[in-house]
Amino acid sequence: MHLKKHLFVTVDTQEIREMSIPESGIEYEIIADYDDVQEIKQLFQGQNRETFKALGYLSKPFDEWGADDRRAAYDADLILLYRKIFETGTEKTREEIREMGILE
To answer: Which domain of life is it from (predicted)?
Structure first.
């Protein structure tokens, strides 16, 4: 069993830190072990892959074929990320995610 510690996750910059830096964006406090952190990092990587794939559609603004699938994949990755943050989050973090309504 790995030791759990308090960490701060910023989704938009994809950072996981031991110290809170509120100026860096919206951050969520979690209580996580090594495996949890690795899973969040993998979810960040999945999000990056889908973002990169979606960039191909920006060069073809009137060709929407496949764009909905890419958007859906990106959304699914984002929901998985927020679900993991919710699962490992403090009560304040869970409340903030509940208010967003993203997991409903």
So the answer is: Bacteria
Tokens 């994949």 appear where? Answer: 73
Divide the 104 residues of the chain into consecutive groups of 10 and give the mean pLDDT of each group.
Answer: 91 94 90 97 79 51 56 77 98 96 87
Strand, coil or helix: 1? coil
**Is residue 61 a contact partner of residue 67, using CB atoms and an 8 Å limit?**
no
- Split into its structural domains, the chain has a count of 1
What residues make up the domain containing 91? 5-100
- Beta-bridge mates of residue 15: 10
- The 15-17 sheet, strands edge to edge: 15-17, 5-10, 27-32
Helix (H, G, I), strand (E, B) or coil at 30: strand
Full-model pTM: 0.78
